[in-house]
Specification:
The chain has helices at residues 13-28, 34-48, 102-115, 121-126, 129-138, 146-164, 173-182, 196-208, 219-237; strands at residues 71-73, 76-80, 83-87, 95-97. It is mostly helical and 243 residues long. It has two domains: 13-164, Lysozyme; 173-237, Muramoyl-pentapeptide Carboxypeptidase, domain 1 (Orthogonal Bundle), CATH 1.10.101. A hairpin with a 2-residue loop joins β2 and β3 (83-87).
Protein backbone atom coordinates (compact mmCIF):
# COMPACT_ATOMS: atom_id res chain seq x y z
CA UNK A 1 0.00 0.00 0.00
CA UNK A 2 1.29 3.49 -0.82
CA UNK A 3 2.69 6.21 1.33
CA UNK A 4 0.54 9.34 1.15
CA UNK A 5 1.13 12.92 2.15
CA UNK A 6 0.31 13.74 5.76
CA UNK A 7 -2.69 16.09 5.70
CA UNK A 8 -4.38 17.63 8.71
CA UNK A 9 -8.04 16.60 8.50
CA UNK A 10 -10.00 18.59 11.05
CA UNK A 11 -13.48 17.40 12.02
CA UNK A 12 -16.13 18.48 14.48
CA UNK A 13 -17.45 16.41 17.36
CA UNK A 14 -20.79 16.08 15.58
CA UNK A 15 -19.17 14.83 12.37
CA UNK A 16 -17.12 12.21 14.21
CA UNK A 17 -20.06 11.13 16.35
CA UNK A 18 -22.19 10.53 13.25
CA UNK A 19 -19.40 8.61 11.52
CA UNK A 20 -18.84 6.40 14.58
CA UNK A 21 -22.57 5.75 14.90
CA UNK A 22 -22.74 4.62 11.27
CA UNK A 23 -19.78 2.30 11.85
CA UNK A 24 -21.39 0.90 14.99
CA UNK A 25 -24.66 0.11 13.22
CA UNK A 26 -22.77 -1.54 10.36
CA UNK A 27 -20.87 -3.75 12.83
CA UNK A 28 -23.60 -4.62 15.31
CA UNK A 29 -26.92 -3.87 13.62
CA UNK A 30 -28.05 -1.51 16.37
CA UNK A 31 -27.40 2.03 17.54
CA UNK A 32 -24.79 2.67 20.26
CA UNK A 33 -25.76 3.94 23.68
CA UNK A 34 -24.81 7.55 24.53
CA UNK A 35 -22.33 6.19 27.09
CA UNK A 36 -20.58 3.96 24.55
CA UNK A 37 -20.33 6.62 21.86
CA UNK A 38 -18.98 9.12 24.39
CA UNK A 39 -16.17 6.76 25.42
CA UNK A 40 -15.09 6.61 21.77
CA UNK A 41 -15.51 10.35 21.27
CA UNK A 42 -13.44 11.03 24.37
CA UNK A 43 -10.54 8.95 23.10
CA UNK A 44 -10.71 10.53 19.66
CA UNK A 45 -10.65 13.99 21.27
CA UNK A 46 -7.73 13.04 23.51
CA UNK A 47 -5.67 11.53 20.69
CA UNK A 48 -6.31 14.31 18.17
CA UNK A 49 -6.66 17.47 20.25
CA UNK A 50 -10.43 17.54 19.74
CA UNK A 51 -9.95 16.93 16.04
CA UNK A 52 -7.66 19.88 15.49
CA UNK A 53 -4.63 17.62 15.09
CA UNK A 54 -6.12 14.65 13.28
CA UNK A 55 -4.07 13.46 10.34
CA UNK A 56 -5.57 11.67 7.34
CA UNK A 57 -8.72 10.78 9.28
CA UNK A 58 -6.83 8.50 11.67
CA UNK A 59 -9.22 8.83 14.62
CA UNK A 60 -7.12 7.00 17.18
CA UNK A 61 -3.55 7.67 15.99
CA UNK A 62 -3.17 4.01 15.07
CA UNK A 63 0.34 3.11 13.90
CA UNK A 64 1.02 1.52 10.52
CA UNK A 65 3.43 -1.23 9.54
CA UNK A 66 3.16 -0.19 5.88
CA UNK A 67 1.34 -3.43 5.08
CA UNK A 68 -2.11 -2.54 6.43
CA UNK A 69 -3.38 0.10 4.02
CA UNK A 70 -2.25 3.62 3.14
CA UNK A 71 0.15 5.26 5.54
CA UNK A 72 1.88 8.56 6.24
CA UNK A 73 4.54 10.05 8.49
CA UNK A 74 4.10 12.86 10.98
CA UNK A 75 6.07 14.03 13.99
CA UNK A 76 5.02 12.38 17.25
CA UNK A 77 6.27 11.42 20.68
CA UNK A 78 6.21 8.43 22.99
CA UNK A 79 7.02 8.00 26.65
CA UNK A 80 10.02 5.70 26.98
CA UNK A 81 11.44 4.87 30.40
CA UNK A 82 9.47 7.76 31.86
CA UNK A 83 10.79 10.34 29.39
CA UNK A 84 9.08 11.97 26.41
CA UNK A 85 10.95 11.06 23.23
CA UNK A 86 10.16 12.78 19.93
CA UNK A 87 10.38 11.03 16.57
CA UNK A 88 10.76 12.72 13.21
CA UNK A 89 9.73 11.43 9.75
CA UNK A 90 10.68 8.93 8.38
CA UNK A 91 11.28 7.07 11.65
CA UNK A 92 9.10 3.92 11.91
CA UNK A 93 7.69 5.20 15.22
CA UNK A 94 5.91 8.06 13.45
CA UNK A 95 4.36 5.97 10.69
CA UNK A 96 0.57 6.07 10.94
CA UNK A 97 -2.37 4.70 9.02
CA UNK A 98 -4.08 7.07 6.59
CA UNK A 99 -7.62 7.16 5.22
CA UNK A 100 -9.19 9.21 2.41
CA UNK A 101 -12.49 9.94 4.21
CA UNK A 102 -13.77 10.40 7.74
CA UNK A 103 -16.14 7.45 7.41
CA UNK A 104 -13.35 5.11 6.33
CA UNK A 105 -11.27 6.32 9.26
CA UNK A 106 -14.16 5.72 11.66
CA UNK A 107 -14.76 2.23 10.25
CA UNK A 108 -11.10 1.32 10.65
CA UNK A 109 -10.95 2.74 14.19
CA UNK A 110 -13.97 0.69 15.25
CA UNK A 111 -12.58 -2.49 13.71
CA UNK A 112 -9.20 -1.89 15.37
CA UNK A 113 -10.68 -1.46 18.84
CA UNK A 114 -13.16 -4.30 18.50
CA UNK A 115 -10.53 -6.61 17.02
CA UNK A 116 -6.93 -5.97 17.99
CA UNK A 117 -7.84 -4.32 21.30
CA UNK A 118 -10.80 -6.58 22.07
CA UNK A 119 -9.90 -6.78 25.76
CA UNK A 120 -10.76 -3.09 26.07
CA UNK A 121 -14.03 -3.33 24.18
CA UNK A 122 -16.24 -4.39 27.13
CA UNK A 123 -15.42 -1.01 28.71
CA UNK A 124 -16.81 0.70 25.62
CA UNK A 125 -20.00 -1.33 25.85
CA UNK A 126 -20.43 -0.50 29.53
CA UNK A 127 -19.52 3.17 29.04
CA UNK A 128 -16.61 3.06 31.49
CA UNK A 129 -13.78 5.39 30.40
CA UNK A 130 -11.61 4.56 33.43
CA UNK A 131 -11.65 0.84 32.69
CA UNK A 132 -11.22 1.55 28.98
CA UNK A 133 -8.03 3.50 29.66
CA UNK A 134 -6.73 0.79 31.99
CA UNK A 135 -7.29 -1.96 29.44
CA UNK A 136 -5.82 0.06 26.59
CA UNK A 137 -2.68 0.64 28.65
CA UNK A 138 -2.43 -3.08 29.43
CA UNK A 139 -2.77 -3.79 25.70
CA UNK A 140 0.04 -1.28 24.93
CA UNK A 141 -2.22 1.08 22.96
CA UNK A 142 -0.49 4.13 24.44
CA UNK A 143 2.78 4.88 26.23
CA UNK A 144 1.66 7.99 28.15
CA UNK A 145 1.21 8.05 31.92
CA UNK A 146 -1.90 6.02 32.70
CA UNK A 147 -3.13 8.39 35.40
CA UNK A 148 -2.95 11.45 33.16
CA UNK A 149 -4.43 9.64 30.17
CA UNK A 150 -7.29 8.34 32.30
CA UNK A 151 -8.11 11.66 33.96
CA UNK A 152 -8.23 13.43 30.60
CA UNK A 153 -10.33 10.65 29.07
CA UNK A 154 -12.80 10.74 31.96
CA UNK A 155 -13.07 14.53 31.81
CA UNK A 156 -13.80 14.47 28.08
CA UNK A 157 -16.27 11.62 28.52
CA UNK A 158 -18.23 13.56 31.14
CA UNK A 159 -18.24 16.67 28.98
CA UNK A 160 -19.57 14.83 25.94
CA UNK A 161 -22.08 12.76 27.89
CA UNK A 162 -23.53 15.87 29.48
CA UNK A 163 -24.06 17.35 26.02
CA UNK A 164 -25.73 14.28 24.49
CA UNK A 165 -27.85 13.51 27.55
CA UNK A 166 -29.98 16.64 27.17
CA UNK A 167 -33.24 16.71 25.25
CA UNK A 168 -31.46 18.48 22.42
CA UNK A 169 -28.41 17.49 20.38
CA UNK A 170 -25.97 20.23 21.37
CA UNK A 171 -23.44 19.07 18.78
CA UNK A 172 -25.73 20.05 15.90
CA UNK A 173 -26.91 23.49 14.77
CA UNK A 174 -30.55 22.39 14.97
CA UNK A 175 -30.11 21.11 18.52
CA UNK A 176 -28.47 24.36 19.59
CA UNK A 177 -31.31 26.33 17.98
CA UNK A 178 -33.88 24.19 19.81
CA UNK A 179 -32.06 24.64 23.11
CA UNK A 180 -31.82 28.40 22.69
CA UNK A 181 -35.48 28.57 21.77
CA UNK A 182 -36.42 26.53 24.85
CA UNK A 183 -34.40 28.90 27.02
CA UNK A 184 -36.24 31.93 25.68
CA UNK A 185 -33.70 33.22 23.18
CA UNK A 186 -34.66 33.84 19.55
CA UNK A 187 -32.51 31.83 17.11
CA UNK A 188 -34.85 32.39 14.17
CA UNK A 189 -36.18 29.46 12.14
CA UNK A 190 -35.34 26.05 13.63
CA UNK A 191 -33.85 24.87 10.36
CA UNK A 192 -30.36 23.66 11.25
CA UNK A 193 -28.74 26.58 9.44
CA UNK A 194 -26.37 28.87 11.31
CA UNK A 195 -27.78 32.20 10.14
CA UNK A 196 -27.37 35.66 11.68
CA UNK A 197 -30.33 35.25 14.07
CA UNK A 198 -28.88 32.03 15.45
CA UNK A 199 -25.48 33.67 15.89
CA UNK A 200 -27.11 36.63 17.65
CA UNK A 201 -28.99 34.29 19.99
CA UNK A 202 -25.79 32.40 20.81
CA UNK A 203 -24.00 35.68 21.48
CA UNK A 204 -26.81 36.86 23.76
CA UNK A 205 -26.75 33.58 25.68
CA UNK A 206 -22.98 33.79 26.08
CA UNK A 207 -23.17 37.37 27.30
CA UNK A 208 -25.89 36.51 29.83
CA UNK A 209 -23.78 33.67 31.22
CA UNK A 210 -20.42 35.39 31.47
CA UNK A 211 -18.87 33.66 28.46
CA UNK A 212 -16.86 35.13 25.61
CA UNK A 213 -19.57 36.51 23.32
CA UNK A 214 -18.19 35.28 19.98
CA UNK A 215 -21.28 33.50 18.63
CA UNK A 216 -19.41 30.19 18.43
CA UNK A 217 -20.65 27.11 20.28
CA UNK A 218 -17.47 25.64 21.72
CA UNK A 219 -16.82 23.46 24.75
CA UNK A 220 -17.70 26.07 27.39
CA UNK A 221 -20.82 27.34 25.65
CA UNK A 222 -22.06 23.80 25.05
CA UNK A 223 -21.50 22.89 28.70
CA UNK A 224 -23.32 26.03 29.89
CA UNK A 225 -26.24 25.29 27.56
CA UNK A 226 -26.49 21.79 29.03
CA UNK A 227 -26.37 23.16 32.58
CA UNK A 228 -28.95 25.86 31.84
CA UNK A 229 -31.29 23.33 30.24
CA UNK A 230 -30.94 21.09 33.28
CA UNK A 231 -31.68 23.98 35.64
CA UNK A 232 -34.60 25.07 33.49
CA UNK A 233 -36.13 21.58 33.55
CA UNK A 234 -35.71 21.37 37.32
CA UNK A 235 -37.39 24.72 37.88
CA UNK A 236 -40.22 23.92 35.47
CA UNK A 237 -40.78 20.60 37.22
CA UNK A 238 -41.60 22.64 40.32
CA UNK A 239 -44.22 24.58 38.42
CA UNK A 240 -42.23 27.78 38.00
CA UNK A 241 -42.08 29.49 34.62
CA UNK A 242 -38.58 30.68 33.66
CA UNK A 243 -37.57 33.57 31.41
Amino acid sequence: MPKVEAVRTNATVDQVRKALSISWVALFGEHPSPESICVLLAQWALETGRGNSMWNYNLGNVKSHQKDGDWCFFRCNEVINGKVVWFEPDHPACCFRAYPTLQQGADAYMHELHGRFAKAWPAVISGNPTEFSKRLKASKYYTADEGKYTSTLVSLYREFLRSVSTKYDLFSVLGVQQALDALGYEPGALDGLAGPKTTAAITAFQRDNGLTADGIVGRLTRAELADELSRNETVNARGVITR
